[in-house]
Automatic annotation (TrEMBL):
<protein>
    <recommendedName>
        <fullName>Post-SET domain-containing protein</fullName>
    </recommendedName>
</protein>
<dbReference type="Pfam" id="PF00856">
    <property type="entry name" value="SET"/>
</dbReference>
<dbReference type="GO" id="GO:0032259">
    <property type="term" value="P:methylation"/>
</dbReference>
<dbReference type="InterPro" id="IPR003616">
    <property type="entry name" value="Post-SET_dom"/>
</dbReference>
<keyword id="KW-0808">Transferase</keyword>
<dbReference type="GO" id="GO:0008168">
    <property type="term" value="F:methyltransferase activity"/>
</dbReference>
<dbReference type="InterPro" id="IPR001214">
    <property type="entry name" value="SET_dom"/>
</dbReference>
<keyword id="KW-0489">Methyltransferase</keyword>
<feature type="domain" description="Post-SET">
    <location>
        <begin position="129"/>
        <end position="145"/>
    </location>
</feature>
<keyword id="KW-0949">S-adenosyl-L-methionine</keyword>
<dbReference type="InterPro" id="IPR046341">
    <property type="entry name" value="SET_dom_sf"/>
</dbReference>
<dbReference type="InterPro" id="IPR053201">
    <property type="entry name" value="Flavunoidine_N-MTase"/>
</dbReference>
Amino acid sequence: MPTVYVKEDTIHDAEAVKKAYKPTHPGLFEVVHAEGSFNSELVASKSFKKGDAICTIEGTTPGPKKYTSVQVSKDLHIELNSDLVFLNHSCNPSVSLDTDKMQLIAVVDLHKGDPLTFFYPSSEWEMDQAFECRCGADQCQGSVQGAKFLSSEVMSRYFVTSHIQQLLNERDQKA
């Protein structure tokens, strides 16, 4: 059975967390821990070319929909149980979380130290905890609630998992 990886939401002593940190994918990416709530991020440990498979997503466990889970089908969520839980959202993402192939894919050329971010609605139909986006991208969506709340035109700008595309098609056929 895989190890359950717990994401610490609020860090009061970043140095202590950094000392205790054991990366799950050494040499590929690492967590940069920052004090405060939801301030940590996942960054590349080396360069990747657009289209590179950065890693295989493995060691996951099924679980209920919650803010740390990832939707992998119309009605199934998983916990990533790895540093991947620190992938932050961006409306201008650097990676795709391809839950069909269970791979993390670079969608732009990445350099060592670049943040690894993905577009949450690419896998999430309806977020467990919606939030206001502050990514600063030119086409920032503002509110991140899930694909259900975005037009198919907006969603066509991004990599989208097959279950999200299916749900978008079903929604649009009813309209």
